[in-house]
Amino acid sequence: MTSAKFEIDVKEIQPTEVEAALDPAEADGVYRDSRECAALALAGGEGSVLLSPPTPRPKKG
Amino acid sequence: MEQSGTSTPLTGAVQDLASEVVSALRSGGHSRVVRGATGIDGDDGITVAAVRILGPDVLLPSILLRTTPDTEDVALFEKAVTGFPPPPNASPASVWSHWAMTQALRRANASGGAYADGVPAGGEEPRTTWLEDASWQFLTHQLAVLGGLATPDGTSAVARIAARRPVDVARGFVRAVRRRDWLQAAAAGRWLVTLDGVPETLGLDAGLDFVDLMGGGDPRVALHLQAARLMRAGERG
What we know:
By secondary structure, chain A is mainly α. Chain A is 43% helix and 0% strand.
């Protein structure tokens, strides 16, 4: 490895950016709509758990 | 959830790299992964960082397809291992990802012999205390972040924790689908393929097809799905 050049190149990247990408937070969910339900029904049929009614949306406030 | 629409050069490089891994997995393992990726040029800092972020999956084609990894890919992989070690305050996911890369590098170099200076020999496993009593939601999220550890020969402590909780991972998979978190769903599905005791009622194959239908356009989603399919095929074959 050409370590001198490599060290310079790596400085282009913020280590914090790499660390953040390695451990991303879980974003807020968006719940499925009827179009997806229909697609799921077409895609499978055995996914009885997946086809069960969606969980309630979390209440805010 | 929909995958994030924000993009930086680094996230773009990771996507390009993931796309190339998917291509290698689908084609039966063409020799070059990193060097063949569009939008990735040489061994600059962004490319090396992208390899570090994608982690052990960069060498996944050679593991799943039992091919010899390209020597230049391995050299770049090694640069990522040495160039981006976990900092002192690193998250467990970062530490485990780095450990998994050292393991993959050791396998890749097995026929070649010695390690380069500065590359740890992939010895002692990191701790798993952060995952021991995790809720099923957090467990699934962390397993998804560490999806690269879900391989047929994965014998890590993280894999052993997952093996003890197949129903919880199945619940996490369903939750991820409902939240439209296709990346987490694909990675959780990949883990489920490696586990015994997954409920039949889950309909995993149909679920993976659905994730592909909805989120397969994202190369990182596609990577997990393709890995799951290949492992599933190996399991049945």
